[in-house]
Write a structure and sequence with these properties.
The relative contact order is 0.16. The chain is α/β, with parallel strands linked by helices and 337 residues long. Strands 1, 2, 3, 4, 5 and 11 form a six-stranded mixed β-sheet that branches. Strands 8-7-9-6-10-12 form a six-stranded mixed β-sheet, with helices on both faces. The chain folds into two domains: 190 residues, D-Maltodextrin-Binding Protein, domain 2 (3-Layer(aba) Sandwich), CATH 3.40.190.170; 136 residues, Bacterial extracellular solute-binding protein, family 7 (D-Maltodextrin-Binding Protein, domain 2), CATH 3.40.190.170. It contains 13 helices and twelve strands. 46% of the residues lie in helices and 19% in strands. It is globular, with a radius of gyration of 20 Å. Helix 6 packs antiparallel against helix 12.
């Protein structure tokens, strides 16, 4: 395990022992403190936006009535821990992907392959009316939680220790994938095998050869130092994954209306900032990875069409299995201009 992870877990244990993690919205005099947890280093655009926009805006615009403590890099637990913490009311706010998609399949839309024309399209979808519609359905399913913002995880790419410069190179390789059927299905349709491993354990799995590669955005390859244990990056951009800002309903509902608005507005502003910063970072990230020795290959238009064709069994099954919502929502997303 890398030193940074050991330190993070040590800090978490120390904070728990010291009683730092009190009940949601802990009162401190005339103010309350809310904790925000994520699984990213502070260099990830979403994490940076939480620090520089969400926390700053909430503290400033609440007139000091709300203090925000942010814990990056899994200090408060992995993604499932964060989701369960917010859902159960032991953590106020978390930045998560879709660990709840098996309970609420509509969240699979966050990982739908080749859904957007480009990143600007994705930003418009998840900072606009569609996001609000999904947020309402989400709260109906999970009354103890609200989604108050959708930011970028990344446009996902594949990396590997083995040659990976074309579609044919997937055959026979082993990839770590997040624990949802879309990611697993993609690599299986491409002739590779999938193994579900938590993000916090991925560096070690790559380093020791448990898996050959993984799929994440270039920003994550950099922030998690995967370039130290990978040789090839294939820029497929097969999924533009999102990160959701979720907040305990107990916390938000107990705030007066003016402070509720402060928190919601800050989350929306942070989401927009994260999208803009992420899109602005791509050229620099690509160069950075090449400078660090990775072979970075763009996916050609022909290879993209081959991938879309090869994963059609997956997308057909997704549409069929989720016929009550998926066809209509996919078309609605594609219609956003």
């Amino acid at each position: 395990m890398r030193l940074s992870k050991i330190v993070a877990f040590g800090l978490a244990a120390l904070c728990v022992t010291a009683g730092v993690f009190a009940s949601p919205g802990q009162q401190k005099g005339d103010s309350i403190t809310i904790k925000v947890g994520d699984n990213w280093s502070d260099t990830h655009p979403m994490a940076a936006a939480i620090d520089n926009v969400f926390a700053a805006e909430v503290e400033k615009n609440s007139g000091g009535k709300i203090k925000v403590d942010v814990y990056h890099s899994g200090t408060l637990g992995n993604e499932a821990d964060l989701w369960n913490g917010v859902r159960n009311g032991t953590i106020e706010v978390a930045i998560v992907g879709t660990p709840m998609n098996q309970e609420f399949p509509v969240m699979l839309i966050s990982d739908w392959p080749f859904l957007y024309r480009d990143l600007e399209h994705a930003k418009k979808v998840w900072t606009g009316p569609i996001a609000e519609e999904v947020n309402t359905a989400f709260h109906t399913k999970f009354p103890s939680v609200y989604v108050i913002g959708w930011g970028p995880n990344s446009a996902r790419t594949f990396t590997s220790n083995k040659k990976l410069t074309s579609v044919d190179d997937f055959n026979g390789q082993k990839f770590r994938m997040p624990g949802n059927p879309i990611h697993v299905g993609i690599v299986q349709n491409l002739g590779a095998s999938a193994q579900v491993i938590p993000l916090g354990e991925l560096f070690s799995a790559l380093e020791t050869g448990v898996v050959d590669g993984q799929d994440n955005g270039m920003v994550t390859v950099l922030s998690e130092h995967f370039y130290e244990v990978q040789k090839f990056l294939y820029e497929t951009n097969h999924i533009v994954a999102t990160l959701e800002i979720v907040i305990s309903a107990q916390v938000l509902d107990n705030l007066p209306p003016d402070l509720q608005k402060v928190v919601k507005d800050a989350a929306k502003k942070a989401s927009v900032k994260a999208w803009d910063d992420y899109m602005a970072s791509l050229d620099k990230d690509r160069k950075n990875l090449r400078d660090r020795g990775l072979t970075v290959t763009a996916c050609s238009a022909a290879d993209k069409e081959r991938i879309i064709t090869m994963i059609k069994p997956l997308t057909d099954k997704l549409l069929s299995d989720n016929a009550d919502w998926a066809p209509a929502l996919v078309e609605k997303v594609k219609a956003v201009r």
